[in-house]
Amino acid sequence: MATKAELEHFFQTDFPQADFTIESIGEKSATIRKKIAPGHLRPGGTVSGPVLMELADAALYVTILSEIGLVAMAVTTNLNINFLRKPSADKDIIAKCTLIKLGKSLAIGEVSIYSGDLPEPVAHAVGTYSIPPARA
């Protein structure tokens, strides 16, 4: 298992390009936040789909690492996303992940993505990660 502080340090040192904050981690769950900037928008004044997918993937990674420890080579093998409604261009994007299955070699989780404090999700994703075998 990894603590919030350990995860924050890991992302700062190993993934300095990660521009999200870890809001919380819990039992097989995590919430992360991304501040939206003009470069994250698409025509029409909404957050781009790739930004939402990036945050869904990051939320899965944070949640899995919080359970299995800092296993950098755990990798995405599948990510499906449904875009449900238009996110606001002037609100942070919040991703809440819950793991559905955590096995020895695969982890599956779902992520609900919100625009600021709006109660309805703007997107929903389900993803699978491959967990490398433990070193002997």
Care to describe what's here?
The chain is of the alpha+beta class. The chain has a single domain (4-130), classed as Hotdog Thioesterase (Thiol Ester Dehydrase, Chain A), CATH 3.10.129.10. 23% of the residues lie in helices and 39% in strands. It has two helices and eight strands, in the order H-E-E-E-E-H-E-E-E-E. The chain has helices at 4-14, 49-68; strands at residues 21-26, 29-34, 41-42, 46-47, 75-83, 93-102, 106-115, 123-130. A hairpin with a 3-residue loop joins strand 3 and strand 4. The longest helix has 20 residues, at 49-68. It starts with a helix and ends in a 6-residue tail after the last strand. The model has no long low-confidence stretch (mean pLDDT 95). Residues 44-118 form the Thioesterase domain.
